[in-house]
Structure prediction request, 196 residues.
Amino acid sequence: KFSEWEVKTEPTAEKVGEKIRKCSVCEYIETEIIPKLKPVTPGDLKLTNETMGIKVWWNVVPGATSYRIYKRSAGQKEMTYLATVTEGNNYFDGKVASGNYYRYAVTAVSDAGESEFGAGVYTKRLANPYAIKAVNKIGGINVTWAKINGAGSYRVYRRAAGEKYWTYICTSSTTSYLDKNVKSGTYYKYTVRAVS
Prediction:
């Protein structure tokens, strides 16, 4: 007659466990493998607006061999499978439109199965302003750029010749800005970021 199973080693997402039971008559010990646990749901999801799309980041999950990315656009009811990542802990999605909202979720996968869905995170896609032009005008330099769908305002940055870093100079609700704080004979470079 065998005793009840006793867990000798608890399973984890990286290693199998083991349980044993002992025969009370012959003292034979029987062992059995406990399968690995499914990996946990990736945490700390972050989304960043990049030049050509949205980048999804998440924490590395112990025991995971790959990650599945799911996406839901505004108006969609369900998450749809987007891609599988086998290296690294980020994914770039270039199939997005400026002004639209997108929600992303990530699951971890191993030979033990796929983790549960998390709540996911969402962001509004904002493309970088393009066609930036700087023209000398009376009283300063007039900076203009193309209108971006979904942008509520624009942050303008400037870098003078010899400077290593961009300096924030203003927030504009239109697609132009007259920079009056400039010196004659100095070269200036401008960049603009959209804000929702």
Remarks:
- The radius of gyration is 28 Å.
- The first strand starts at residue 6 and ends at 9.
